[in-house]
Amino acid sequence: MTTPAREFLKGCRNALPVTLTFSVLFVVVGAHSQASGLDLAQGLALTALVFAAPAQMAATDLIAQGAWLPALLAIIVINFRFLLMSASIAPYLGKPGRGRLLASVQMLSASTFATSFIPLREGSLQYPLSYFLGVCAASFPTAVIATATGYLVQDAIPPWLQQTMTMVLPIYFVTFLARVWPRTRFLAAGVLGLVLTPVANSLLPGFGLIVTALAVAALLMLLEPKACPKTI
Predict the structure, then answer these.
(1) Transmembrane ranges (predicted)?
(2) How many other C-beta atoms lie within 10 A of the C-beta of residue 153?
(3) 192, part of any domain
(4) Structure pTM?
(5) Residue 11's domain spans which residues?
């Protein structure tokens, strides 16, 4: 018999690839925070409050220079994609209380969304919010702990290894796309992102990823078949 606890544990298990990825990726984030002059509390606060490696990397240098307003604007622009993600995932979470929903929103990231959205959309979960919280519970603490670890061992990580570690994220998303075969819309989104990001970044340096993400998301929303989401 399915219970909220079992669906929570299922989310934890399915988040294992995210956990492994974050255990490497956020070490780089923590190391970059230390190298940029942030203290440990600031580095941990960025991960806990922003929970998005691209936005954190973009904002770290600005915060270290005391440019808090530009850093805030950079975080808002880069994380604007979460508005689209939350709008997509919310109808599949049932009808939780506002407090539980707000608590879970803070742990939404590209990876927790990618791991949760397809099972939620398929309607095979009796307790969808419990599943999503399980994914988040495995991912969020890992990011915080890895940030602290990277900060503390930054001097011991050679630059070439840091560059190698940043390749974990693209590899992770490639494996995710392989898992969603043969869902052509998701595969098309991944391929479009791979092709369009360098072009957009050459036209708008520093904003290529943002522009591509918004364009691909808008295209997917236009092509989304109209259907009533299942709720519990």
Answers:
(1) 15-33, 71-94, 101-119, 131-153, 165-182, 202-223
(2) 13
(3) no
(4) 0.68
(5) 4-167
